[in-house]
Every structure is written in C-alpha cells, then in structure tokens.
Amino acid sequence: MKNNTKVSEFILLGLTSVTELQFPLVIMFTLIYLITAIGNMRMITLILLDSHLHTPMYFFLSNLSLVDFGYSSTVTPKVLVGLLSEDKVISYNACAAQMFFFAMFATVESYLLASMAYDHYAAVCKPLHYTITMTKSMCTHLALGSYAIGFLNASIQIGETFCFSFYKSNVIHHFFCDIPAVMTMTCSDRHTSELTLGLISSFDVFFAILIIMTSYMSVFTTVLKMHTGKGNRKPLSTCDSHLNAMSLFYGTAIMYLQPSSSHSMDTDKIASVFYTMVIPMLNPVVYCMRNKVVESAFKKVAEKANVLYV
C-alpha cells in the first residue's frame, strides 16, 4: 500500500501461517465455540425458566454467561472464516467494531466478577441484612453500572486508537483487531495514547481485583470465626466456582496488560486464544461443576420439556 494512501481495510495475519495446522485449528475452534454457545445459552435459559435460580448470584451469573457468549462471538467467527476461506481482510469499520465490542465485554466481565464477590460478602458476612442489601434494584444497578463502564471504556479505547491515521501499513500481526497490534501500525507518535490506554485498562482490572480481594478477606475472616467444620465448609463451597472463574480471567488479563516488549508476538497470540475463546467456554463448566442447584434445575426443565413433547 502506498504511503500516501489512507488505509480502508486491514489484513489479519492469523494465528499461524502453517497450512497443515489450519484444518485442526478449524475443528478445535469450532468445537470450542459450539461448547461456549451451548453452555452459556443453557445457563441463561435455566436461570430464566427456574424460579429457584432467581437470586442475586444467578442473576449476575446469567449476565456473565451473556457477556462470555458476546465476546467469544466477537472474535471466533471471523477467525474461523479466515481459516476456512483464507479471507484475512477486515474492513476499517469492522475492525473498529470488533475492537469496541471486545473491549466492552471484557470490561463488563471484570466488573460483574467484582459484583459477584460483593454478593458473596453480603451473603456470608451480613446474612441477616442480605435481603435488604442485595435487592433487585441493587443487583440491577450493579449490572447496569458494569455495562455502562464497559461502554465508556470501549469508547475511550476506540477513540484513542483510531484517532491516528494509518498510512504506513495495513497488516495486523494478530488473528483479531487487538488494540496493541493495531496501534503498532500508526505513523504518528502513539506514546501518550498507549500510556493513557494502559492506565485505564490497569485501573479497571486492579480496581475490580481490589473489590474482590477486600470482599474475600472479609469472607475468610468471618468463616475462620465459625466454630464447626461444616460451618466452615458451606460458605466457602459457594465461593469456589467464583474464585476459579476469577483466577482464570484475571490471570490472563494481567498477562494481557504486560508491555508488548516483555514477550513475543506468538506468546501474545497464545494468551489471546485463551482469553477470547477458552475462558468463555470454561465459565459455564466451572459454575456447573458440583453445583447441585444447577443440576436440579436442568433436570426439572428437561422433565417439563419431555412432558410437553409427549
């Protein structure tokens, strides 16, 4: 592309250039996406249909499932199209849209996990005031606040990234329009924008982690004050799934926030596969494991469906 021609589309180099790996990757990513879609939609449907799951914890979990499905769908279908047809071109507007929705869903997930930690804190540390604290209005405000912050963060990310002109190159060394990969193609001085985006992303992640850590410190302190063994295990068992999901999400988020100079592009791509495809697939599995309430709800819905069918 000539230096004086403004970029109107980008070329995604993809995950690998090895032809022999493309078909196995198509199979693997297709299975991952199907499991993600079915698992998250199943969770949302169960929570909507079973009145026993109309609680704050499952309200947040249904939103988490929706967000997981959303940001997996933002990336995976385009990756599969590129692998199947070798069509690696993405338009300027489509690239901006993909970047926007990915940034928004990732931010929303971060704050939903923080809201779920606060819900656990209220349930374990303030059980007598739980119904007064975690009202429908409170849960709705926390969820809407998460979406609002996600929208604002994504808008800033897009504004800071696409305020530059792209004349030099239109080749993105990635399999989706990730902000750091796109920023490297600009001809302008991007130092200030990179610093701004880094500070905003770091604040979102570490502020949410602070809320989670504060909530769970209170939870563990309260549990340690309990005398019976059963009393110790029951509150902690309700937090297991959330702690596992939180560890998966923030573990990769912190890796994502590391300076690009500290790791190779291949390492960045592998980490990206994990947080764009694998985590959205694992969350429904994590929350269903050893969850007798979800298993019971699924059996009830299945029985009702069989009765209606017969």
Automatic annotation (TrEMBL):
Every G-protein coupled receptors family 1 profile domain range: 39-287
Membrane topology of this protein: Multi-pass membrane protein
SUPFAM superfamilies: Family A G protein-coupled receptor-like (SSF81321)
Any one GO MF annotation of this record: G protein-coupled receptor activity
UniProtKB keywords: G-protein coupled receptor, Membrane, Receptor, Transducer, Transmembrane, Transmembrane helix
One Pfam family cited in the UniProt record for this chain: 7tm_4
Coiled-coil residue spans: none
Localization (cell): Membrane
InterPro entries in the cross-refs: GPCR_Rhodpsn, GPCR_Rhodpsn_7TM, Olfact_rcpt
Classification via PROSITE patterns: G_PROTEIN_RECEP_F1_2
Domain of life: Eukaryota
GO CC annotations on file: membrane
Residue ranges of the TM segments: 12-38, 58-77, 89-108, 205-224, 236-258, 270-289
Protein known as: Olfactory receptor 5B17-like
Encoding gene, per UniProt annotation: LOC103275717
